[in-house]
Amino acid sequence: MPEFKKRDLSDEAFEMLGEQFKAFSEPMRLKLVYSLMDGEKSVSELVEETGGLQANVSKHLRMLLEAKVVERRKQGLNSFYAIADESVFKLCDLMCNSVEDRLTADLKSFSSSA
Amino acid sequence: MPEFKKRDLSDEAFEMLGEQFKAFSEPMRLKLVYSLMDGEKSVSELVEETGGLQANVSKHLRMLLEAKVVERRKQGLNSFYAIADESVFKLCDLMCNSVEDRLTADLKSFSSSA
DNA sequence: GATATACTTTACTCTATAGTAATGTGATCT
DNA sequence: AGATCACATTACTATAGAGTAAAGTATATC
Predict the structure, then answer these.
(1) How many other C-beta atoms are found inside a 10 Å radius of the C-beta of residue B98?
(2) Closest partner residue to A30 among B18, B89, B92, by Cβ?
């Protein structure tokens, strides 16, 4: 059990936290964020990389934008999106590790119970 | 921009990640997790601390259990819940910091624009 | 100015889930 | 056994949002 400094959180803070997590709760949005790890990309590029429909990608990007997970730069006909915050990288790293651990754990329990 | 080691993630991994985040996407569940930071607690205690209805608390605890965020121990009439994994602490810490930063940033921009 | 391009928004259907009340379940006590 | 207690589940309503198709908007090109 690590030493954890507990903060006092208001109802508003819990709401904000929830909305932040919700931004990362859909596979499509995770794919978009993941794709943007390489750096700034246009919507067309993101559509191609994720394999989603353009309207759907656009909608999810809007949600990520409102959650301030990504930022947008318009240039000519294009909209370029990029990860807004360094903390997003940390977050993804942590979650990826967690999922990786769980996947390998599931794999182990599967093979040992077979 | 930090050096970030990008993994290859499957569709299944994105789904798992999404479900993990979804577990943390509701204020009530965050309150429960937050409350459990102190250590193991019974449902009654959690009901009292969160101010929610028993049925609702119970349902959310079930979701957290299925997401393996918490674990359950039954003893007599009581069910005791506890944080399942150390990574939950790290995750909460990171997110709390992020929200804190954003709140203070909002506060600053509010007071400087007034 | 008409047309094409890149993206956004709207309108729609469908599914998931939050909150609540009522009921069910299993352990404990008398 | 019957009552009670702690919790879980079910049934219901209401709302959010995911995916899709169609229409809208703004910028560039001819």
Answers:
(1) 19
(2) B18
Decide if B21 and A22 are in contact by the 8 Å CB cutoff.
yes
Find how far residue A15's CA is from the centre of its chain.
18
Single-letter code of the amino acid located at A21: F
Least confident of A25-29, A96-100, A109-113, B101-105: A109-113
Question: Do the beta carbons of residue B78 and residue B43 sit within 8 Å?
Answer: yes
CA closest to C1' of C26 belongs to B77
Can you tell me the distance from the alpha carbon of B100 to that of B91, in angstroms, rounded to the nearest whole number?
A: 14
C-alpha A67, offset from chain centre = 11
CB-side neighbour CA atoms (13 Å) of A79: 13
pLDDT greater than 60 at residue B2: no
Closest CA to B96 of A98, A84, A20, A1: A20
Nearest Cα to B94, choosing from A93, A12, A54, A108?
A93
3-state class (DSSP) for residue A72: strand
Query: How high is the mean pLDDT of chain A?
Result: 86
